[in-house]
Design goal:
Blueprint (H helix, E strand, L loop, with lengths): L1 H31 L5 H29 L2 H19 L14 H35 L1
């Protein structure tokens, strides 16, 4: 039963990360279509970047503590990328450069979204598998 609970927690954590990345993409799309000014868009995106990084780190730690080694290994490249951005002080969106970097910022977040959706589906698979396995016992 605790394995089922673990997969349930990881599933909702992955959903939360997907929602954060989609929010960032929506802010960039609003900026692209002039629904929002660059300052507001950058401040909204920058407000959720650190919680996204922390959430990914907590998810990796959760996988390690629950003994889901493969999922933890799948989280390592994404966390490494986030840590690299943070240590190089490139994790925040610059208000003055946001229009020049708009395509790159969107591509970066689309790649993150694809990676997180893969983690989400794997979590969902293992959630269903552990639920069926608990049901058989």
């Amino acid at each position: 039963m605790e394995d089922l609970f673990g997969w349930l927690v990881s599933f909702f954590a992955a959903v939360a990360l997907v929602v954060v990345v989609i929010y960032q993409l929506m802010c960039l799309a609003d900026l692209e279509f002039d629904y929002i000014n660059p300052y507001d868009s950058a401040s909204r995106i920058n407000a959720v970047i650190l919680p996204e990084f922390i959430g990914q780190g907590v998810l990796l730690l959760f996988y390690l503590l629950t003994g889901h080694w493969v999922m933890a290994l799948l989280c390592v490249p994404y966390l490494y990328y986030n840590v690299t951005l943070y240590t190089q002080k490139q994790h925040l969106v610059d208000v003055t450069e946001i229009y020049n970097m708009l395509k790159w910022e969107k591509k970066k977040r689309l790649f993150k979204l694809g990676y997180l959706v893969m983690l989400l589906f794997l979590s969902l698979f293992w959630l269903i598998y552990s639920a069926l396995d608990d049901h058989e016992e």
